Amino acid sequence: MNGEGVRRRDFINIAAVSFAGVGGLAALYPLISQMAPSADVLAESSTEIDISAIAPGQAIKAVWRKQPVFIRNLTPEEIKAADAVDVSTLRDPETLEKRTTAGKTNWLITMGVCTHLGCVPLGAGEGEVKGEFGGYFCPCHGSVYDTAARIRKGPAPKNLEVPPHEFASDTVVKIG
Amino acid sequence: MSFPWANEYKPSHPLMQWVDDRLPLPRFVYNAVGAGYPVPRNLNYMWNFGILAGFALVLQIVTGVVLAMHYAANDKVAFDSVEHIMRDVNWGWMLRYAHANGASMFFIVVYTHIFRGFFYSSYKAPREMIWLLGVVIFLLMMATAFMGYVLPWGQMSFWGAKVITGLFSAIPLVGTPLQEWLLGGFAPDNAALNRFFSLHFLLPFVILGVIILHVWALHIPGSSNPTGVEVKQESDTVPFHPYYTAKDGFGLGIFLMLYCALVFFAPNLLGHPDNYIPANPLSTPAHIVPEWYFWPFYAILRAFTSDFMFIPAKLMGVLAMFSAILVWFFLPWLDTSPVRSGHYRPLFRKFFYLLVVDVLVLGYCGGAPAEEPYVMISQIASIYYFLHFLVILPIVSSVETPQPLPFSITEAVLGKDEHAALSPATPAVA
After folding, report:
1. Residue of A nearest to B167 (CA)
2. Which of B167, B182, B186 is the best mutation test for A, with the most CBs of A within 10 A?
3. How far is CA A18 from CA A5, A9, A24, in A?
4. Mutate which of B75, B162, B308 to disrupt the A interface (most A C-beta within 10 Å)?
5. Which CATH architecture does the domain made up of B31-268+280-414 adopt?
6. A113 to chain B, closest Cα gap in Å
7. A162 CA to centre of own chain
């Protein structure tokens, strides 16, 4: 600019390089966005499950978004055990009531995905180890969940996630 | 750059002369790994491992490209296509075992290469850039190896992918969206398998590019040597070819014997039987571990079992695991001793061997189940690992009295300097 102020050439130079830069960044967007979940993956976002055959004390593994979901029919003792815990002592403080649907607190519906690194905890299948708090136990890194699927011990930071769900009828639950 | 006494490339054949005038590629090779590269005369067998690592990379690229001709990166058929390679493709079993065990051999060689660097302080000025590029290569290798292990789409593949991408979900705020973006879904699926295949094919060539930079940076100061004393005169060096091509050739023979023993007599020794079970998103293997070369870092990841101050245990483990490698980037500035070689550093040497033991202990714990006493041992070993680099090295560097260094490489080899053999072209040194 050597004392003459902004020359016509400087303007053209900056404008051209800026334009190319913006264009380059804009071209980057689809390249990054293509890696996000595609439409067909997102479309598998809700599923309906018949829960009529699950007796108290039993649980099933369903699949939602290609991940396991635990649907567990809690026994009165398990509900009592979950309610007996002082919530303020928990790592991720939540009551069982808050984690279940009102009037159906025996139906504990959570993701079967450990919040540590994503393994499937044991405890939903027949005869599997339920851990020292009677809920779920993750064999990968030793996280222990209680009967409300709340984290009690081990490296996981959060309770097992409760997916969005509603009861379509007394025997059918819709997840997602 | 090279030493002034380096041999000059003089093509005798007119065709080579013609090529040299137009594209001096043979000259480039001659100066890089031929008679035109003067190398310290005292290199021991620890200096074989750079070339061996390069050989292992070529081996992986050749076997990998061939396997890609038969493999199908689709979650429905990936597992079957690997079995097809094992059972039906001509020599497919050998190519796959060569590739899988080639990865293990690559890591054995590279770990030796890295610990050679630790012992002889190869990272010190003026070779910092070689070291930094080397750490980049190691990180790329880890990414490549991880994605390659996912491709057979067995149980360990699937759950390895889930756990490792789960590491990213530990990052506050952006973690979960980032994990979904990396996977292209909510759990490892066809999208993830496909992109891992694409990147597993690409990254080795990126590694090749960084290796070229690594060797380029090496040729600026020239190779280091076991005394750590820089080259001073012609008698300190010999031409790379034939002296070190021969020595490396011998090392390569040993390497190939070990490698072939693995491939032909114990091809699954270092693998996991669980990976011969097709991926099942609803059932985690009881004992989930990565390949052996990730065990030390996996142990550090699992060592954090309770929250540390305000940082959740999970994030802490992830940060520590990545820091365990990132700390190597700072090594040239953490070790401030002017003496390079561990041979002349009595105190440093002891701590070096302690570090080797510490990493072996971490490795053992990383392969063991996540239960006591392994968790506690991992915790102690992880603390010591970081203490070594961040506290012990700087202190040792400042309090240690090194042993006297030889005047030159020639003196270290021959006991005295005067009768060093010089080439007839060199003027006598007064």
Report:
1. A117
2. B186
3. 20, 14, 10
4. B162
5. Up-down Bundle (1.20)
6. 10
7. 7
CA dist B95 → B59, B64, B67, B152 (Å): 10, 8, 7, 14
Determine, for residues B180 and A36 on separate chains, whether the beta-carbon distance falls below 8 Å: yes
Asked whether B15 and B22 are in contact (CB, 8 A), the reply is no
B1 touches chain A (CB under 8 A): no
Does domain A41-175 fall into CATH 1.10.10.10? Answer: no
Reply yes or no on whether B248 is catalytic: yes
- Known catalytic residue: B162? no
Residues 365 through 394 of chain B touching chain A, CB cutoff 8 Å: 370-371, 375
CA-nearest of B386, B399, B411 to B345 is B399
Contacts of A115 in chain B (CB under 8 A): 314
Q: pLDDT tens per residue, chain B (430 residues)? A: 578 999 999 999 999 999 999 999 999 999 988 999 999 999 999 999 999 999 999 999 999 999 999 999 999 999 999 999 999 999 999 999 999 999 999 999 999 999 999 999 999 999 999 999 999 999 999 999 999 999 999 999 999 998 888 888 888 888 889 999 999 988 899 999 999 999 999 999 999 999 999 999 999 999 999 999 999 999 999 999 999 999 999 999 999 999 999 999 999 999 999 999 999 988 888 788 899 999 999 999 888 877 666 777 778 888 999 999 999 999 999 999 999 999 999 999 999 999 999 999 999 999 988 778 898 999 999 999 999 999 999 999 999 999 999 999 998 888 876 655 555 555 554 4
Question: Would you call B206 exposed, middle or buried from its count of C-beta atoms within 10 A (0-12, 13-18, 19+)?
Answer: middle
Residue for token pair 């050989």: B55
CA distance A132 to chain B (A): 14
The domain locations on chain A are 1-36, 41-175
ipTM summary value: 0.75
Q: In angstroms, what separates the C-alpha of B66 from chain A's closest C-alpha?
A: 27
Active-site pick, B99, B162, B247, B272: B247
